[in-house]
Amino acid sequence: MSDDDTRNKKTLKEGLPRDERAEGGSNGNVPEAPFSERDAAILADKAQDHAGAKPMAHTPHGKEDIAEGAKPVPRADSDDEEPLGTYKKIDPQDRESGAHRGPARKHDDPKTKALKPKMRPALLLAEYRTPGECMHAAEKLRDAGYTKFDAHTPFPVHGMDRAMGLPDSKLGWIVIAMGLTGTTLAFTMMYWMNNVDYPIVIGGKPPTIASVPSMIPIMFELTILLSAFGAVFGMFHLNRLPRHHHPVFESDRFRAFSNDKFFLSVEVEDPKFKLDRTRELLDKTHPSHVELVEEEV
User: Fold this and answer.
1) Any transmembrane segments, and where (predicted)?
2) Could you read off the pLDDT of 126-168 as tens digits, one per residue?
């Protein structure tokens, strides 16, 4: 055996822990196995680590001291890449900029921050325990000149519309207009068809205005039909429906409005709305809770 092999065996024996050396046999010899010079160098570094020596980095150009802050590179699968135990030196500029730490985390990415929705104030929501408190608060808002506010109660509260200063509903005018339109349309249609376009005598009734009694059923049907259409679609228009979402539903406390709580909401579109003044006015009505509800821009 050559001197180099004897030196490598000795290095291998010193680089292994005590338990691993004992497994070699009763005399402490390590079983002979072929290994390369690179493996011998790695084991030599291991022995130096046990002895407290400064680790060395193996590069294609020889051994170099490991720079402070250097990080190890894992074993490469290809022989073309650097072997196990190789360390890369960190550029001082990268150390200052933090580039050696890898890509930024997701919540630190400026693009991710840009995707977060922007919020803006939508309304002030005041919660009350009783319908009386809610009605008195509505009167305060009405007297202060607010017009774009609403009451949310689990059941109809008699007198709330008067407390809010709401005028009589316009829905009745829409219904009567549509009903008269149906009556007129039915009479005109039948008079034209039976007396002008194609006159015909039915049941001894002459094709004149005297045959109006025979038109009553159709006139009644069209009156009711168009009145119903006017009531439904007029209600949708006056209530600005359908509206699939309202900012008030962003409040978790608002879920109790259909159970046992009473709410007043003042929208920011109200000409009198000023965040500080409106909140101060609501606080004077002694609500159990007041919050600012926001919505996405």
Assistant:
1) 171-194, 214-236
2) 999 999 999 999 999 999 999 999 999 999 999 999 999 999 9
- Are 292 and 121 in contact by the 8 Å Cβ rule? The answer is yes
User: Which positions ≥6 away from 73 have C-beta within 8 Å?
Assistant: 82, 86, 87, 88
* Percentage of residues in the chain having pLDDT higher than 70: 62
Q: Which residues, 6+ apart, have CB-to-CB distance to 212 below 8 Å?
A: 187
Pick from 160, 155, 158: which is nearest to 261 by CA? 155
Q: Are 124 and 279 in contact (CB under 8 A)?
A: yes
Residue pair 235/171 in contact by the 8 Å Cβ criterion? yes
Decide: residue 100, CB within 10 A, 0-12 exposed, 13-18 middle, 19+ buried: middle
Name the pLDDT band for 114 (thresholds 50, 70, 90).
low
Question: From CA 31, how far away is CA 25, in angstroms rounded?
Answer: 8
Q: How far apart are CA 260 and CA 280, in angstroms?
A: 25
Query: How many whole angstroms separate alpha carbon 52 and alpha carbon 43?
Result: 14
pTM, full prediction:
0.54
Amino acid at 9: K
CA 170/CA 230 separation, integer angstroms? 11
The phi and psi torsions of 294 (rounded to 5 degrees) equal: -110, 160
Q: Is the peptide bond before 242 cis (omega within 30 degrees of 0)?
A: yes
What is the rounded distance in angstroms from the CA atom of residue 13 to the CA atom of residue 16?
6
